[in-house]
């Protein structure tokens, strides 16, 4: 699957003084709040991180806010699909108009009818919806199938 | 204005047209795409059908349903900017206005929209959340059977829609969380909208996406409860049941009441304030009952332990840190009563742990032990052995404190210690008779306790006089130990010393689980609550012969009436309490430990009463009593 990448990052985390007793908890919480969200700096959706705290002592920010900053080194797993990349996902819904896919368990994608290869025809067989290929008899797409598709936008 | 359907040459005379679904869908798609080329006729007709949604004739209903279904199939052709009038018409529709078929079609459309494109997700979720509450005209009909039926229809569809959307868009619950929290009606709405909204939040908690959103929902509900709790001033509640107008006017209250200009319409102000307090109190009452019922359903489903963890977290974060929360803590009390072995004990142990740890701030420790003391005294469902083990922890801690601090009395410096001692004495006032019957407990607890009480730090002098007096009276009657000096307090409310250790927050007079003054809540809590009148003090047998003196002082009966929970609640009597008429309540009055010689002061077992003053005297807001 394309679109997944690992990255090494040097980060600085600013913590509120109330977290001074439980610093590692504070850091993990800060980083966790970034999970599954698109981050411009990282250039992708953060999926996972592995963190090492560098400083033994933290530096207090000068100025009005008494937050203290900690430097970290982190390994990040990022997901940033671009156009024409191939992704795999599991089918969750089939309809005449579209196929709904979930990628990596958190990201949803839709493939509209016009983008589905012509050989596939929408059928309802025994109460089950599927897309059957006209050229290859065995090739069907049902709910739960893993499919590969390319990213349009 | 109907949809212009393509003319079918085989159309019957009475205009019955049979089109396949796909034909209708393609027609709608054409209508949508035709807008691009400038032809807006069919599109406008579509929008027209959406808008025309009140008082529909049956065929109009059918048309609406068909249109909605067709739109659901055509979502891929909807453009967020091009078709904004159609979209705004769809999102402003309320499920409460329609019957089941149209509602189904509408929900299907919303779900399809939500999963088709990330841009619509927030809008669709927002539309569903706004359907938590019915339109204003419907609020009154909610109690009627028809209203209830409609409510069931709408809400079941809304929650099913959430589940469906969550299935196809895994991160949707995250968005939903923020929306539900932001959409909460504020305290100032004061109508039943918030009730039904909270009901929905609790349904989300126990629903299919409950795993993801449940704990946040519960914490948000507790936050709202506390907000309402704090809106109710202590005065408004206390004076609710006063027939005589002994009222205090707080400087803060004057600011609240904007309208009245004349300074001497004291009574008018009081009644307005009481009324204002009343409606909020009623709202809080109803919300608390909703929460209690939800907890009951959690218990039936076997989920109470998990929900309780969230509740405890919320309690620590919100309730304990609120200044003298009045009723919200009863949520935890009720949860404990539903599962005494797990939740009940867990709560007490957590409070005790908080108290003994040095790392917590002073006021947290003091308030924690105040909660513990009140809880151990009032919970009918806790076993004597558990209470004694908790007491033992407190006693051991206090004893160690005494041994490491060989210093003289100093209320300010040893606040945590004094609050611990007061807690022990308070619990023993309620439970002493029980312990007397078990000789082993007597030796384990009472010998160290004697050491503590006779220490240089002199807790008997510092702790709240009403508590100390009652404790000593019972201790004497049970021949536990005698103190060399006599402590005479004359029914005093408090002393300088107790005020000193209580501090600005007055944690010396904080008894959080005193009887709940909200009527509906009280009927839930009553069966597992220990009222002071139910306690048999150790001196009781001896007491009936003494003290026949004037307890029928009008004022004291008035105050007593205010505080004695039996009198106040003329509704919801449990099998324990009967209607007390004046004779019985004289007798109950005698059973009270303190026969008030004056009407000032904290009556043991009742609610803390502000000292009564001359009417219409305005107390300066700097005085610590002006809560």
TrEMBL record, chain A:
Presence of keyword Transcription: yes
Keywords, alphabetical: DNA-directed RNA polymerase, Nucleus, Transcription
Localisation: Nucleus
Main location: nucleus
TM region(s), chain numbering: none
GO CC term (a single one): RNA polymerase I complex
One annotated GO biological process: transcription elongation by RNA polymerase I
Function noted in UniProt: DNA-dependent RNA polymerase which catalyzes the transcription of DNA into RNA using the four ribonucleoside triphosphates as substrates.
Protein name in UniProt: DNA-directed RNA polymerase subunit
Organism: Durio zibethinus
Automatic annotation (TrEMBL), chain B:
Short name of any one Pfam family annotated for the protein: RRN3
Record flagged with keyword Lyase: no
Keyword Protein biosynthesis: yes
Domain of life: Eukaryota
Keywords, ordered alphabetically: Initiation factor, Protein biosynthesis
Region (Disordered): 606-627
GO molecular function: RNA polymerase I core binding; RNA polymerase I general transcription initiation factor activity; translation initiation factor activity
Any GO BP: transcription initiation at RNA polymerase I promoter
One Gene Ontology term, aspect cellular component: nucleus
Family: Belongs to the RRN3 family.
Name assigned to this protein: RNA polymerase I-specific transcription initiation factor RRN3 isoform X1
Organism this protein belongs to: Durio zibethinus
Taxonomic placement: Eukaryota, Viridiplantae, Streptophyta, Embryophyta, Tracheophyta
Gene (UniProt): LOC111292084
């Amino acid at each position: 699957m394309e679109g997944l990448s690992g990255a090494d990052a040097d980060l600085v985390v600013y913590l509120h003084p109330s977290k001074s007793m439980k610093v590692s908890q504070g850091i993990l919480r800060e980083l966790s709040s970034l999970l599954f969200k698109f981050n411009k700096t990282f250039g992708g959706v953060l999926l996972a991180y592995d963190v090492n705290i560098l400083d033994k002592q933290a530096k207090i920010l000068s100025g009005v806010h008494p937050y203290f900053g900690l430097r970290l080194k982190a390994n990040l797993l990022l997901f940033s699909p671009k156009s024409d990349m191939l992704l795999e996902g599991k089918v969750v819904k089939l309809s005449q108009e579209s196929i709904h896919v979930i990628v990596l368990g958190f990201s949803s994608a839709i493939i509209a009818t016009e983008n589905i290869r012509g050989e596939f025809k929408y059928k309802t067989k025994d109460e089950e919806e599927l897309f059957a290929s006209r050229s290859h008899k065995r090739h069907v797409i049902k709910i739960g199938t893993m499919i590969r598709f390319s990213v349009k936008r | 204005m109907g949809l212009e359907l393509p003319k079918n040459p085989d159309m019957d005379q009475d205009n019955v047209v049979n089109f396949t679904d796909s034909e209708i869908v393609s027609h709608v798609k054409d209508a949508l795409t035709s807008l691009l080329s400038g032809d807006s006729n069919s599109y406008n007709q579509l929008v027209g059908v959406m808008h025309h949604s009140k008082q529909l004739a049956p065929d109009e209903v059918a048309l609406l349903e068909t249109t909605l279904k067709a739109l659901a199939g055509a979502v891929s052709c909807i453009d967020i900017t091009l078709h904004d009038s159609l979209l705004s018409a769809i999102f402003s529709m309320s499920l409460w206005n329609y019957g089941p078929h149209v509602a189904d079609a509408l929900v299907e459309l919303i779900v399809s929209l939500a999963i088709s494109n990330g841009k619509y997700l927030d809008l669709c979720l927002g539309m569903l959340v706004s359907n938590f509450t019915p339109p204003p005209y419907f609020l009154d009909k909610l109690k009627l059977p028809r209203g209830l039926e409609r409510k069931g229809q709408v809400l079941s569809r809304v929650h099913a829609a959430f589940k469906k959307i969550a299935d196809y868009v895994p991160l949707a619950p995250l968005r939903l969380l923020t929306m539900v929290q932001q959409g909460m009606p504020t305290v100032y709405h004061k109508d039943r909208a918030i009730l039904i909204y909270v009901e929905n939040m609790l349904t989300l908690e126990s629903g299919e996406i409950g795993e993801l959103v449940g704990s946040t929902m519960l914490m948000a509900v507790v936050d709202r409860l506390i907000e309402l709790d704090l809106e109710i001033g202590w005065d408004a509640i206390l004076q609710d049941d006063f027939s005589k107008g002994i009222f205090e006017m707080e400087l803060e209250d004057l600011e609240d009441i904007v309208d009245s200009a004349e300074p001497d319409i004291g009574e008018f102000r009081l009644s307005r304030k009481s009324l204002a307090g009343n409606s909020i109190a009623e709202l809080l009452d109803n919300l608390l009952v909703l929460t209690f019922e939800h907890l009951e359903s959690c218990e039936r489903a076997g989920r109470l332990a998990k929900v309780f963890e969230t509740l405890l977290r919320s309690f620590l974060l919100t309730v304990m840190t609120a200044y003298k929360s009045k009723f919200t803590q009863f949520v935890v009390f009720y949860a404990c009563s539903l599962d005494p072995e797990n939740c009940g004990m867990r709560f007490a142990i957590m409070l005790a742990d908080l108290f003994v740890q040095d790392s917590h701030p002073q006021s947290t420790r003091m308030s924690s032990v105040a909660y513990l003391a009140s809880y151990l005294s009032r919970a009918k469902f806790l076993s004597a052995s558990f209470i004694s083990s908790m007491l033992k922890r407190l006693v051991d801690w206090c004893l160690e404190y005494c041994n490491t601090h060989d210093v003289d009395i100093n209320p300010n410096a040893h606040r945590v210690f004094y609050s611990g001692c007061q807690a022990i004495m308070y619990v023993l006032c309620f439970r002493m008779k029980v312990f007397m019957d078990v000789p082993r407990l007597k030796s384990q607890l009472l010998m160290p306790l004697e050491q503590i009480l006779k220490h240089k730090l002199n807790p008997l002098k510092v702790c709240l006089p009403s508590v100390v007096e009652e404790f000593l009276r019972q201790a004497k009657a049970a021949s536990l130990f005698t103190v060399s000096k006599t402590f005479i307090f004359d029914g005093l409310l408090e002393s300088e010393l107790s005020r000193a250790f209580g501090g600005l927050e007055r944690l010396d007079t904080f008894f959080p689980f005193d009887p709940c003054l909200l009527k509906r809540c009280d009927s839930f809590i009553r069966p597992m609550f220990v009222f002071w009148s139910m306690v048999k003090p150790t001196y009781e047998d001896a007491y009936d012969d003494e003290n026949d003196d004037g307890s029928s002082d009008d004022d004291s009966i008035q105050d007593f009436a205010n505080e004695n929970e039996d009198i106040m609640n003329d509704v919801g009597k449990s099998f324990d309490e009967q209607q007390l008429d004046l004779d019985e309540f004289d007798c109950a009055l005698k059973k009270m430990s303190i026969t008030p010689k004056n009407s000032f002061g904290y009556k043991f077992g009742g609610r803390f009463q502000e000292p009564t003053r001359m009417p219409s005297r305005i107390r300066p807001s700097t005085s610590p009593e002006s809560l």
